[in-house]
Structures are given as C-alpha cells and as structure tokens.
Amino acid sequence: MIQQTAAMVDQANDEDFEDQQQYLTFLMQGEEYGVDILNVQEIRGWGNVAPIPNAPKHVSGVINLRGAIVPVIDLRLLFELGDANYDENTVVIVLKVATENVNRIMGIVVDAVSDVFSLTLADKRPPPNVNQGVSHSYIDGLTEVKGKMVILLDSERLLYLEKNN
Fold it and tell me: What is the pLDDT of residues 129-143, one digit of tens each?
C-alpha cells in the first residue's frame, strides 16, 4: 500500500495541472484529511522513531532520513483525536516546505494513507468558523471527494507549529 501510494505521489508530482491542485489523503480516527502533494517528500512505514525525553505528547520523536534528523509529530495527538494506536497501516508522511531561507522537513504520523486526488480552487471551501478538535489555524479548507468530506491541512502551518503553540 505504501509503495502504491508513493508511486501515485511521484506520478502526481510529474503531471502538470495548471488550475488544479493535488492532495494526498490520509485517515485519522476514521476521518479523511489531505495535504498538498507538492509538499510530500515521501511516505514511510511506522518504526524506528527515537523518542525525545520531556517532549510534548504529540512529538513522537525523531527519525534519521538519509543523514538528516527529522522531527515526527503525531497529528492524532496534536489534534486531540483520541488514543493513537500504531499498527501495520500506520505511516509517517514526510513533509517538506521550502521558504526563502530554509527547507523545513517534518514527519506526521497518521493512521493510513488513502488516495491522491485533484481539485480546482472552486472545489475548495473555507473551513467553518467552529473548532471541533482540530486547530482552526491548521485547516486550509474543505472539499468533498467521492461523497466524503476531506479536511485540507496547511502543510506550511503544520511545519511551523511550534511557533503557533
């Protein structure tokens, strides 16, 4: 499943859609979320995460990614979605956002990857003005895919979450 989704990510990164944006979707506690596929560096199976003493509960630890030390955040705990269980479907999505000065890389732990889909700006709706567990500042918008609501997350805000807390 991870290799199949990684292949979809690679294919989506290679394709050129002028007025469309592509998202990688994933599951957390039965709900579907999405991140801009251009910010997805890779998808890894759960494992080999070194814990950091006295770190906040949502910080799972760090991984060594080809010599780079990458922090890993469990979004299920950050968003207070309940207990975080780790099984064979649990994955770490490695996100990368380039700014003027630096590239930020961080892994996010999710229950499972789901799909890759495209949408236009007209398909994206603003989030409602209520807070239902997910910090409103991390939500980029909402859309409907195959009859299911997908919460679109802002990768850049996620990667700079320590500035928001």
Answer: 765 555 677 888 999
Which burial class, exposed, middle or buried, applies to 130 when counting CB atoms under 10 A from its CB (0-12, 13-18, 19+)? exposed
Contacts of 160 (CB under 8 A, 6+ apart): 104
For β-strands 31-36 and 148-153, DSSP reports them as parallel
CA distance 92 to 61: 12
Q: For every residue of the chain, which 3-state class applies, written as one string?
A: CHHHHHHHHHHHHHCCCCCEEEEEEEEECCEEEEEEHHHEEEEEECCCCECCCCCCCCEEEEEEECCEEEEEEEHHHHCCCCCCCCCCCCEEEEEEEECCCCEEEEEEEECEEEEEEEEEHHHCECCCCCCCCCCHHHEEEEEEECCEEEEEECHHHHHCHHHHC
pTM: 0.80
Output the average pLDDT for the chain.
Answer: 84
Two tokens, residue 63: 């991984």
Q: How many residues would you count in the chain?
A: 165
Among 3.40.50.1820, 3.40.630.30, 3.90.79.10, 2.40.50.180, name the CATH number for the domain at 2-164. 2.40.50.180
Distance from C-alpha of 6 to C-alpha of 12, rounded to nearest angstrom = 10
